[in-house]
Amino acid sequence: MATDKNDVKFVLSERDIPTKWYNIQADLRTPLPPPLHPGTGQPIGPQDLAPLFPMELIKQEVSQERWIEIPEEVRDVYKLWRPSPLYRARRLEKALGTPARIYYKYEGVSPAGSHKPNTAVAQAYYNKQEKVTRLSTETGAGQWGSALALACQLFGLQCKVYMVKVSYQQKPYRRIMMETWGAQVVPSPSPDTQAGKKVLQSDPESPGSLGIAISEAVEDAATRDDTKYSLGSVLNHVLMHQTVIGLEAKKQLEKAEDEADIVIGCAGGGSNFAGLSFPFAADKLSGKKKKVRIIAVEPSACPSLTKGKYVYDFGDTVGLTPLVKMHTLGHSFIPPALHAGGLRYHGMAPLVCKLYDEGVIEAVSAPQVATFQAALQFARAEGIIPAPESAHAIRVVIDEAARCKKEGKKRTILFNLSGHGHFDLGAYEAYLAGKLQDYEYPAEKIAEALRGVPKVKG
Ligand SMILES: Cc1ncc(COP(=O)(O)O)c(C=O)c1O
Predict the structure, then answer these.
(1) Which atom of ligand 1 has the smallest separation from the CA of 271?
(2) CB of 230 within 8 A of CB of 49?
(3) Which ligand 1 atom lies nearest to the CA of residue 267?
(4) What does each C-alpha distance from 74 to 38, 78, 79, 85, 125 come to in angstroms?
């Protein structure tokens, strides 16, 4: 159906939900450096990961196939909210007086309120197929925990969530949401694991971090036969499951008779950014659309891409996970208690890091207060109250739109509105009361944490 020049929403039918995920590993210029065993320093094999993940996900993690079939049962669950809408931010454009055309893909329409269920549903499905009965995981902002709690409920699995303590305290409603979907939630560091006990001994007041919570959830899965571990970001298969976002967005932009010049996403572990941008990065890698700019946005207080080192490091704090090559601030770095809890991670997805290292994508960092200024500008123009994580992307969208205005350029900007901020109103309250602060870039702490990164060639 033809689109009207004043259309605001570009929607697809359920039949347009992608049937395959896009695996960017097939199109990389050189293969991804392999994950290494933390003890031997040698590349790990599928058997090393088998205690933590079902075999099908391990296969996906290393697959070089460009397209991977999405099971019918997963697409059936996706129908509850997918295809998600693509919006043209006409009111924001007007408020900014920019010649840029701004589009956003809105993932806040999922039951959990973010993009996270796109992979949670797939992961719960494959675990169920392989007769796993319980999943353990960590959550920062509570978005990933809620997504997995929902997915486990839909596939009849038990779910234990280690929730970063500062978020547990800031966001009781996220916990209640997870419990409503049947999950068990504890604040991390917790006394339920050796990893948690160790942190509590050295710092009883620890606010927790994603790295610590990952250590706890991994230990939980590794020490129980009925349990596997589920990660909400960083891993190759997780990023791949999220590509439904970008694949749909491409079709929707076609409907709008437009093409993206700039693609923007916030990046914590990298999954929503990758989900939107990898199908566009494919065109850049193949030479079909070389000029598209792809920008990851991270918080200035936890700037793994822009200030981290590209070396092998642990994915968690305690050092239980394999070593992966990524931009890292050091696995022992505990980021300040930012309101964008989902962006408080010391590392970044290896696939995102590789593309950054090769200059396929760019990265910028945004401070907290300027991010909330952008969030309010967006909410007041477009209505939707963005998650603080997504607001990092909006900050850069507004900056790029201002640049278009200055240069008189009509560029098309596409970004991922990865979630709504309905459970983050405490942060909005702090901002509105003028109490929100910027954190200094924690240079000292990062330098110290980087000294603790294991020495591995690569
Ligand atoms: C709404 C939202 N956006 C972004 C993120 C960051 O994660 P990722 O970089 O994996 O997309 C989170 C993490 O919890 C989130 O909840």
Answers:
(1) 10
(2) no
(3) 9
(4) 34, 6, 9, 19, 7
Give the closest residue (by CA) to ligand 1 atom 1.
419
With 90 as the cut, is the pLDDT of residue 39 above it?
no
Amino acid at 163: M
Per residue in 104-136, is it b (16+ CB within 10 Å) or e — as a string? bbbbbbbbbbbbbbbbbbbbbbbbbeeebebbb
Distance 399 CA to ligand 1 centre (A): 21
Sign of the Cα pseudo-torsion (184, 214, 241, 378, in order): positive
Burial call 358-371: b when 16+ CB within 10 Å, e when fewer: eebbbbbbbbbebb
Closest atom of ligand 1 relative to the 390 alpha carbon:
3
Q: Which residue's CA is minimally distant from atom 12 of ligand 1?
A: 342
Question: Which of the four pLDDT bands, split at 50, 70 and 90, describes residue 5?
Answer: confident
Instruction: Tell me the CA–centroid distance for residue 389 and ligand 1, in Å.
Output: 6
Q: What type of residue sits at position 458?
A: G
- Residue carrying structure tokens 């693609």: 263
Position 368 scores a pLDDT of: 95
Ligand 1 centroid to residue 185 C-alpha, Å: 19
Mean pLDDT along residues 380-409? 98
The whole-angstrom separation of Cα 201 and Cα 155 is 37
Residue type, 306: T
Helix, coil or strand: residue 57: helix
214-244 core/surface letters (b: 16 or more CB in 10 A; e: else): bbbbbbbbeeeeebbbbbbbbbbbbbbbbbb
The confidence score (pLDDT) of residue 194 equals 97
The angle formed by the CA atoms of residues 316, 395 and 23, to the nearest 5 degrees, is: 50
What is the C-alpha to C-alpha distance for residues 377 and 383, in angstroms, rounded to an integer?
A: 10
- Pick the residue whose CA is nearest to atom 14 on ligand 1: 342
Residue type, 10: F
Within 6 A (CB) of ligand 1 lie: 114, 140-141, 143-144, 233, 266-273, 342-343, 387, 389-390, 418-419
86 backbone dihedrals φ, ψ, rounded to 5° = -105, 130
* pLDDT at residue 344 greater than cutoff 90: no
- Atom number of ligand 1 nearest to Cα 274: 11
Structure tokens given for 281: 């990065």
Counting from 1 in the atom list of ligand 1, the atom nearest the Cα of 144 is 14
Span between the terminal Cα atoms of the chain, in Å: 52
231 CA → ligand 1 middle, Å: 12
Alpha-carbon span 248 to 13, nearest angstrom: 11
In the reported structure, the alpha carbon of residue 2 is separated from the centroid of ligand 1 by a whole-number distance in angstroms of 34
Tell how far the Cα of 272 is from the centroid of ligand 1, in angstroms: 6
The model's pTM is 0.96
Q: Are 108 and 114 in contact (CB under 8 A)?
A: yes
